[in-house]
Every structure is written in C-alpha cells, then in structure tokens.
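2024-03-11 09:14:02 DEBUG pipeline.ingest accepted 1 chain
2024-03-11 09:14:02 DEBUG pipeline.ingest length=387
2024-03-11 09:14:03 DEBUG pipeline.predict start
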Amino acid sequence: MSNGSGKVLYLDGIRGLAAFFVLLHHFCLAFYPAYYTHEMADSHLNGMELVYDNTFFSFLTSGSFCVHIFFVLSGYVLSRKYYRENDLGIIIASAQKRYLRLFIPVGATLLFSYILLQAGAYYNVQAAAITGSHEWLGGFWTFSRPTVVFLKSFLWETMFLGNNQYDTTMWTMSIELYGSMLVFALLALTHNSRNKGMMLVLTSVALVAMGKTQYICFVLGISFNYLELRPPALSSPVRVLLSTGLMVAGCMLGSYEIHGDTKPFFAHLPPVVKAMRGIYHIAGGYFVILAVLLSPRLQAFFSSRLLRFLGFISFSLYLLHCLIIGSLGSALFLRLHESMGYNGAVAVVFAVTLAVVVGLSFLMARYVDVKAMQVAGYCHKRWFKQG
C-alpha cells in the first residue's frame, strides 16, 4: 500500500507505533521505576510492574526493541528507491542531503531543551525524589556549565558522538547518521554488481566481529528490497501462518530485558541461544517488519489513518517526549500527587503529557521536520547538483 508518490504507508505506521511505544517506555521509567529496577520497594502498583515486566507483553514498553525497528526501517527506506531505479545518482543525492535532514530537527530540539533548562522549567529531580526514578528521571539536566554543554552538543557531539545530555533519546543520532552512510556506501560500492547479496552478508559478519551489531539493522533493512522485488509465491494459509509466527517471535524477542531478563521462557533457553542475546532486539525488529511485508492484513492495519498520523509525527515525537516528561509532566505530578494520590496523578499526567507531546510533535513535524527535508533538498541543488 502506497500513496501517489510511491511512499509505503504501512512503513510510516510501523514507525509511528514504535515511537509511541518509546514514549510509554520512558513514561514507565519515570513514574514506575520498579518496571526496570525489579525491586518491590520501588513499586507503586503493589508489584504489578514486576509481574508485567515478566510477561510477553512487555515488548509494548521495550525502548531498545523499538529503536532497532527504527534502524531496520531506515536501511529499508533509504535503499528502496535505488533498488527500483538502479540509479547511482539517487544514492549520491541522498548521502549529500542526509546530515541536514537529521540535524535540523535535532538542533531545534537541543535549542528547545536548552531554553527549558535556562528557564528553570525542568522539575525532574524533584519528581524523581517521589517516584523513585533516581537512576533515570533524576539523572537528567543536572550537569554544570549548561551553555558549554549545549554548544558542544549542538555543533558536533550529538550528531557525531551521540551526546544525549540534553535529550536522552539522542544517543541514537550518531548511529542513525553513520548507519545511513553505511547504507549509501554499500549501495554505491556494489552498484551494477551481481554480488550485492554476498556483500551484505560479509558486511554483517564484519560488523559482528567488530562488535558493531546495531549497524546490522541497516544491512538487514536493505535485504527487504529483495523480498519486495521478488515476492515468494505463498498460499494464503501459509502466508498467514508465517506472518503470525514471525510477529509473535519478533515481539517475544522484543520483550527481552537487556539489563538482565528474568522471564521464564528466556531462562530455559539453551546456552548457545542465550549467548546470542545481544541480537535479540535486532532479530525481533527484523521479524516484525518481515511479518508485515508478508501480510496484507498487517499492511492494512499499519496503513490506518491513526498510525499514519503517528508516523508523520514520529521523529518529532521521539525527540520531544522526554523533554515534556521532565518539564510539564514532572511539574504537574508535583502539583497533583498529594491531592489526587500517586496513581491518580500519574494518570492525569500521562493524559496531559500525551496531548501536549502530540500537539507539539505535529507542529514540529509540519514546520521543522518537513522544512528540514526542503532545506536539505535546496542545499543539495545549490551546493552539489550540476547544471
């Protein structure tokens, strides 16, 4: 399913839902820390956080899993047009535009966070003293020399080194930038080659050997082009069974807790499988997207209007939500928790935070993210394109 411009709608839907799950993940880290500390003393729900985290459904709040879905999607989306047109110019132009396309929304978010900090609008430390999220929520925006940190983050450290002091989600930006360039380099080096597939395999092996497993996501994303261009001839029942199995397996792998999982179905795995735990979220993200590619029903679900809207605002939502949790969300919680009780206050905070994040993300998507693509295109034509 695609629109008139050839954009695949369900890919936007996958990205949008994953971004929403990242927001849920960080909201739980802020207000229900037992979800990740696994300590009953940190529980605000009589231990239900610990019970939930031991279930299959904890993939719904697995931030790492969702981030790896983003990376796999990037590899696929960035290479898709090239595979359909076999035009090296597409890769060159995409590489030349990529930095500005990513940096402009990132830079705007860094500036917004800096303004919030200078205005004294962050109440995360005070809120963490009550929620118990000392290791996560209480650790943000406590650094000295904020202007120096901002300038270094803005000018080079966030995009090239993954500095996330002003926004915890920005550790992914350097990986996204370098992963994008890896995609473009692989496609350029193998242009008109009959051995593209073998190069993808060899690159993946090299990345494992170097311990750069997150970049495998981008290579796996490229591989989806082969499936789309040469779809397997599967009967409808086989397609349903295969896509269902892949989706369940992907979500189960996504539920793995990278900081020490205690789920029974992981504890009883053979040692050789446990040794591969470093790629569980990578494989999970790959399986989920593969399931969607094989299933027209899943494609229709992820092409729904709501999920496409989330897809449109996904990058902005991803960048902004922690800033709102640490400022407005924390301030509102401090104001309400005594009169409404802990969980009543958290419910109101979640509703208000979600509404504000979605509203701001829509504005940012329309007036910053879209403009970033236009500016990147203009600068490409002005600086690089001949004629």
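2024-03-11 09:14:41 DEBUG pipeline.report The two ends are 36 Å apart (CA to CA).
2024-03-11 09:14:41 DEBUG pipeline.predict end
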